[in-house]
Amino acid sequence: QVQVVESGGGLVQAGGSLTLSCAVSGSTFRNNGIGWYRQIPGKQREWVATISTDASTNYADSAKGRFTISRDNAKNTAYLQMNRLKPEDTAEYYCRLGLGIRAYWGQGTHVSVSS
Length: 115
What we know:
By secondary structure, the chain is mostly beta strands. The protein is built from no helices and 11 strands. The chain has strands spanning 3-7, 10-13, 18-25, 34-39, 46-51, 57-59, 67-72, 77-82, 91-97, 104-105, 109-114. A hairpin with a 4-residue loop joins strand 7 and strand 8. The radius of gyration is 13 Å and the shape is globular. The mean pLDDT is 96.
């Protein structure tokens, strides 16, 4: 059974940093791309960043220059380092295992950025 578990969310002041983790079990982590998404209540989930199996990365414009996605295949864990956080980054952050039709989602970790 595949499990995806996010952690690392919390409350931070604007300008601060957080690192989110995405721990995966029950699947061949290294063979799957990873995506980070976020969602504000009442709005659609939006893509933040992805990292492919070859460690190539892509970022949404809102994340470029501030966020860094990475992966550690030995630990079956992906990360999202978030710097210079803004109040508008406040959201539930989700990790997605697999970038194709077949994907697994975690239950999310909440990030709140105060002004």
